[in-house]
Design goal:
Helix 5 packs antiparallel against helix 6. A hairpin with a 5-residue loop joins strand 1 and strand 2. The model has no long low-confidence stretch (mean pLDDT 96). With 273 residues, the chain is of the alpha/beta class.
Length: 273
């Protein structure tokens, strides 16, 4: 596993890891809110590495990336610059962009500002494409919405308790103790102001989705309580050529719940590009 630090447009340092076949099609993994590159462990350490160049970035404010101030999470262009910096600094040749949960918002930030010419395709995983409206809230589960205030709390006890709830909702209640501990560690390492900034964005990509020409794979778990399956149907309706991939008995992180199934689908998608 190689590690890199790249500099984004506003000077923020973004941490990236890569593994796999350096001559293979690059796949860039973009995690969700309060998570990190380690969320993709079951992809980075899989047989995908035999054929693909696997790259995972820590979003700004997460993991080992730099944590700029509160205003650095509101601007669509800043998120777009982060992805562009990774693609260009690592010389990723027509990568597949994989975004989980909040990750599709970041991918769409990138496409809005940089277009899609130098990417090969997109995989949205349990993802949202808008924030800050009643319509956006309608595809978020009530159990998740109930813990959002706690996720944004500056009280360590309150935020920690709600972050554990979030982790269990993402990865199911069947986590091994060591996995739960590791996930809690990287969740609580994210300052509350980062989550506050990310949740406070008001963005609607309904205008952008129908314009996407590159192949799109929409993956979702049928048991997802955070981003409801209706969100996948909405994205599919906006991007008619997209492929819809429902994963049975999977929660918000289907790539973890059933890694073999997810990895197989991602491989087939990437090989078709």
């Amino acid at each position: 596993m190689k590690s890199h630090d790249v500099t984004s447009g506003d000077g923020t340092r973004i941490h990236v890891v890569e593994t796999g076949n350096p001559d293979g099609r690059p796949i860039l993994f973009i995690h969700g809110i309060s998570q990190c590159r380690l969320s993709w462990d079951r992809q980075l350490n899989s047989d995908l590495a035999d054929d693909f160049r696997l790259v995972a970035m820590d979003l700004r404010g997460h993991g080992l990336s730099e944590r700029p101030g509160a205003e650095a999470y509101l601007d669509s262009k800043l998120w777009a610059d982060d992805v562009d910096a990774v693609i260009r600094s690592l010389d990723l040749n027509h990568p597949v962009l994989v975004g989980w949960s909040y990750g599709p918002l970041v991918i769409l930030d990138y496409i809005r500002h940089y277009g899609e010419d130098i990417i090969a395709g997109v995989n949205f995983v349990g993802g949202i494409t808008k924030l800050g409206s009643e319509e956006a809230m309608s595809v978020l589960g009530p159990e998740f919405l109930g813990i959002v205030p706690g996720l944004l709390s500056d009280d360590e006890g309150i935020s920690g308790q709600n972050l554990e709830h979030l982790v269990r909702m993402c990865f199911s209640d069947q986590l091994e103790p060591e996995d739960l501990s590791a996930m809690l560690d990287f969740n609580v390492s994210v300052p509350p102001y980062v989550r506050q900034g990310m949740f406070s964005r008001s963005i609607n990509n309904d205008d952008l989705l129908p314009l996407i020409k590159k192949p799109v794979l929409i993956t979702y778990g049928d048991l997802d309580k955070i981003v409801l399956p209706a969100a996948a149907d909405q994205i599919k309706a906006a991007i008619p050529h997209a492929q819809l991939h429902k994963m049975d008995n999977a929660d918000h992180a289907p790539f973890w719940n059933d890694a073999a199934n997810y990895n197989r689908a991602l491989r087939q998608f990437a090989e078709s590009l």
